[in-house]
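Hi L.,

As promised, DedA family protein:
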Amino acid sequence: MAAPPFAEASQLAVNILSAQSLLSAFGVVGVGVVLFAETGLLIGFFLPGDSLLFTAGLLGTGTADRGVQLSLGPLLIAAAVGALAGAQWGYLLGRKAGGALLARSHSPRLHDGAARAEQLLERYGYAKAIVLARFVPVVRTVLNPLAGALGVPARTFTVWQMAGGLVWSLGLTLAGYGLGSSIPSIDTYLLPVIALIVIVSLIPLAAEVYRSRKAKAASG
């Protein structure tokens, strides 16, 4: 007997805030698309980039009992391409549209992220800010068009967004893969582990803030 229409609809539904749901629906291709949207389009600021990368790496081990298995090689390529192409696209949009992109948004969270991104650029300079922004949700979305709007040199932006993008995308993916390979049934504790990964990803930014304050205090 055929399944009721509502049952089919529930099976097709995708929770875009859930890394597991996105990976179940779109697999490796979804990783690249989501990272491109999160880093290149302002409307993607709410997407789960950190947890998506880590969960994808975990599923790449083939040991997680989650109904989804991903190949590590294609996964790493999709993650890197999505992260790098998205950031570059966001920068180009910022160069062409300027601050109008942010002005059209009514999201307080997005505007708060823009303010934090501008503070990073002012405090640490282009190179450090572009790399650090990769590890801060929302900030990694708005810094790219903001850098374009503020006239950050294209070569400088490209070099450092590639450096930060590769460390972020490949690092989190391989972290998930490494834990999944070394710890049996790690997927049972997926949510707590993802929360830990997100916290760890904020350490570089926290360390820079600490060093900056310490340097200011030392200089009087």
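The two ends are 78 Å apart (CA to CA).

Thanks again for sending the construct details.

K.
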